[in-house]
Every structure is written in structure tokens, then in C-alpha cells.
Design a protein that fits this description.
Helix content is about 25%, strand content about 25%. The protein is an alpha+beta fold and about 190 residues long.
Amino acid sequence: MTSEEFLAWLQPGIFADLIGGQIHMHSPVNLLHARLINFLDHLLRAFLEETDTPGELHRECVAVRLSSRDTFMPDIAFFTPHQVAQFAEAHAPVAPMFCVEVLSPTSVKRDLGPKFAAYEHHGVQEYWVLDPHEFAHRFFRRAGDLFVEFGEASERIDSATIGGFWVRRAWLDPDKAPKISACLREILKPRRR
């Protein structure tokens, strides 16, 4: 299947990725997965609003067409204003600057295999792969043409692409997530001095 056929097939409420021309339906997420996405989306959205950072943040309901056979629906994706200006009516025809995928048992191989390679190939600048079960979170940023892992032993993970945004690794436990307001105050504290 081509990306154009996939986008014509895709309907509201259907969550799937087209990977190498094959449709991969998203399984219903478990609560750990949902809590982690909700936490990070809420925190990042609040940060972007508070800092008046231009661009758009989207969740898994936006299809991102990367090539003729790859169209993904990332869990979280941030696009710059330049990228937003290229949006089509029903999809983003450009790779996001910042992308997050939260692993589920059925998505591990795809998120760290063909989706990783496609995000890398099509210019995503930063890719976070979060594991709500084992907390083996992995963070990648672009170095030339390739993703390189960073923050492996760090308690604080600073975004390479969204200036001033960071998280504490401990915040990424979906069963122990702190209050968004407390996290946001901590992130913004150096800015308010």
C-alpha cells in the first residue's frame, strides 16, 4: 500500500501506522502507556504555552507522511512554524522536529526498528522512546545524518530541540508522576530569576 492509499483509507478514530507499505494497527493502549503520554503531553504543552514557543504539538491522531510507503501516527510530535506551514488538510507531509513514542509490548520492535530508521532518515531532530513498564527510557538526538543516544545515566534529560525544556527521569514513571504544576515551576525556575 502507498502512503496516499493509506491516507485515503485512514478514518477518524482509527490509529495505525503504514510501515514499509504494510498497515500496523495500534493496539488499545494500557493505562501505564496512556498515563505516560498524558503526563508528557500536558507538561510539554504547558511549557510551550508558558514560554510562548511557536509551533504545534500533536498527539497520535495526526498522520505524518514520511515517504511513499511510510506514514506514522507518533504518540507525541512537535512541529516548528516552518513545518506547520507545509501541512496538508488531513496530514503532516513533513517529519516533526521532536517525536516521542511510548512502547507497548507489541510496538517495541517497530518503534526501535523501522520507525527509528525512518525518523532518522527523514530528519527528525530528537526522538524519545519511553518504556512505561521497565523504565528503560532512551533518548536520541541528531548528529549529522544519524541519531545518537544521550542521557543514558542522567537524572535530568534536557531536550536538544525545544530550548529550555527538560524532564527528570523520575517523572517518567506513570504510576508516580508528580503534579504538572510543580514540574513546570521547576523547569521554569531559572527563567524567572
